[in-house]
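Example (one chain per record):
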Amino acid sequence: MATPTRKTAVKKPVKRQMTDEHKAKLAQGRLEYRVVSRYLEAVAAGKGKRGRKRTPESISMLIARIDQRLAAATPIQQLELVQRRMDLVAERERLSARVDLEKLEADFVKVAKGYASRNGITYSAFRELGVPADVLRRANVSRSGR
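Predicted structure:
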């Protein structure tokens, strides 16, 4: 004999509404993320490499030398020289593009302390990525994390 089946009540999920305060905090977090990210990218791009720093003018001189060598080069050398020239042109454009680091830094100083405390980011982590100590001091990001 079969047992009668029972209908069990299925509870509908409660539709939750985000408060305006919660939405504002999420928007603030996204803004701070963008500000910190842009500043860190600018700091990383400005680090460069060790040794003598290249200028757009010195890169232009290297490109001119490559152009002179191209005429007498073998096809495989031409290939390598053309690639080298393309790399130098891209580097010259990157160096010529001015990033307003002062503006990025000022924005970073405004949001860094709050961003760091909410996300558990330490003074040392910022320093390891190249953020200068004086910038962190102005942002009130301390070594003790307070």
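Caption: The mean pLDDT is 86.
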